[in-house]
Fold this sequence. Notes:
Elements: H1 3-41, E1 50-56, E2 70-73, E3 78-81, E4 86-89, E5 101-105, E6 109-110, E7 113-121, E8 131-139, H2 161-167, E9 168-175, E10 185-191, E11 204-210, E12 220-228, E13 231-238, E14 241-248, H3 250-253, E15 257-264, E16 269-280
Antiparallel strand pairs: 1-16, 2-5, 3-4, 4-16, 5-15, 6-15, 7-12, 7-16, 8-9, 8-15, 9-10, 10-11, 12-13, 13-14
Amino acid sequence: MNRRDLHYSQSNITFVLILFLSLIGKSTYAQEKYSKIQKDSSTHTMGEQWETVFNQSLCTTQADAWKTLFFLDGLNGKVTDTQYELSFEAGHGGFFHADHSVLWTKQTFKDGLKISYDYRRDDSITKDEVCILYLLAEGIGQSPFKQDIERWSELRRIPYMYIYFWGMRLAHISYSTGSAEGSPYIRCRTYPMETNKTVWSKLVIASSYDDPGFFKPHKWYHIEVYKNRKQLSFHVTGEGLDKTFSWENKRLGQIKSGRIGFRQMQGRNSSYKNLCIRQLKK
């Protein structure tokens, strides 16, 4: 091999080595990024000890057995026990606010919480009416909004939204929103509004996740929620999809105890099963 060929061969080796190291670096970066996402979304509970405090598979043959565990806001909402699941229908009468409904746990919980359940959308409406998960809801403690929200449930026989975002302290996750083609967004908010001049958009916690691809009608999805201090995550699997949506904000850290609620806006029908709530052991 002459000197020119040797130089050419060495250059090729150097180029291949640089390319190889570059690919390893990208792969390592991608793996580290993926690992961080996985850690943030699902393994952040590793090492934590949990105690099951609410475990209702919603399998019952007794009529209205749900009333032992839940209570309902809204005149026109309907809850039905079946052998395997709980069917929850908001009103369909065209009365708008009176047709909204919220299903609350009678039991209260503390921060450091994992919630899991299976969800199925049973309607195909095309209006932008949402389902909302309320987390650790309490009244703000000023009359008439007592800390125990069950004590002023009469004020919510017509579940105007403003009663909730003025009178309650909670975290709110919107999901299964919009048309039957899928949810246009998954979004987190915190209540209460500070004043009646607060803009609704100011309640949003970044980020808002658009077009997540979930919650098509008549398909079951598994939902897992984690709330601890200022961290909140919403993990959804189903129909070949597996995604986690997460938020971190000091306002979430101010929400420390209360009830869990499932809100359905006018015209929304859903089924729930295998609801389980776990509390972090201190």
